[in-house]
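Q: I'm a student working through a structural biology exercise. My instructor gave each of us a protein and asked us to get a predicted structure, then write a short paragraph describing it. Mine is tRNA-specific 2-thiouridylase MnmA. I'm not confident about reading structure output yet, so if you can add a plain explanation after the tokens, that would really help. Here is the sequence I was given:
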Amino acid sequence: MKLRVLAAMSGGVDSAVAAARIAEAGHDVTGVHLALSANPQSHRTGARGCCTVEDSRDARRAADVIGIPFYIWDMAERFQRDVVEDFVAEYAAGRTPNPCLRCNEKIKFEAVLDRALALGFDAVATGHHAKVVDGVLSRSVDPGKDQSYVLGVLTREQLSHAIFPLGESTKAEVRVEAAERGLTVADKPDSHDICFIADGDTQGFLAKRLGSAEGPIVDERGAVVGSHQGAHGYTVGQRKGLHIDRPAADGRPRYVLSIEPVSNTVTVGPRAALEVTSITCVRPLWNGPSAQQDVTVQLRAHGEVYGCRFEERDGALVIDLDRPATGVAAGQAAVLYSGSTVIGSATIDSAA
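A: Happy to help. First, here is the predicted structure for tRNA-specific 2-thiouridylase MnmA. I'll explain a few features afterward.
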């Protein structure tokens, strides 16, 4: 069946090859680049960032090579509100957000998909490394590039209108294909880190927006071992950049154990104190087949996978791990899998 497909083209190699494959399959494809920054010239330093003037030009050139119509949609205001401001607010509350996950949820598969359907398109295609089969999300064949975790927040309805053409290909295969198709982005570096923090300085970015407020760094017993200029600049599991004045008695490194925004206190301690086996999550979303056997959970993008059991209690999702995990931070997503299939996700609220 021939579909009308809107191909989201970031200006990178993945989305260009995804659009080319959909067009070659005989569908009616239109390319769209999302302008997410009001000042895009400042958003790339080497491979850092995305959504720049350079990226929009690369996307347009790719669309020309493929032979499809191309448009630019201005999503800067929506991106600022739903992704950037959410990111700042989450850190201010002592949580650690994932802006890529939020962008997929609020921009690419809410704002963009809603507009695409209103314009008569049947689906949105992206260059994500993941698979959708019969409306069910699952992992890519390339474990190093798999992006099912950051797509785990999508609803079944959204997944029914999503196409991920790269799910059966490795990144190396995608680059080779791009070169064979004459796409100039074949060797373009992947963007990384947080796209709206081009220099990679998250603490500096947050300090400009939340200001500086000196507070204590304390150990597990409450003894002050250092100071900081804002608890919002830290995340659970962090080891570097703590500026601790007094070394631990055993000489081992300290890690951030907790962040208390109200008292502006950062608590540090040994790595062993980071270990948790029970995680309580809020806002559970079930977007795949129900399962209780051989279930695993991923707690960070490209993070480890843990065997687990789960149950819903009073609207919350409680996940018990088969072995301890470290660095589990409130605000991150817990994505549940049965084998390689995503069955649901939720936002981490606390862990013990």
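A: Here are two points you could use in your paragraph. The first strand starts at residue 4 and ends at 8. The domain at 212-273 is CATH 2.30.30 (SH3 type barrels.). It's a good idea to check both against the output above yourself.
Q: Great, thank you!
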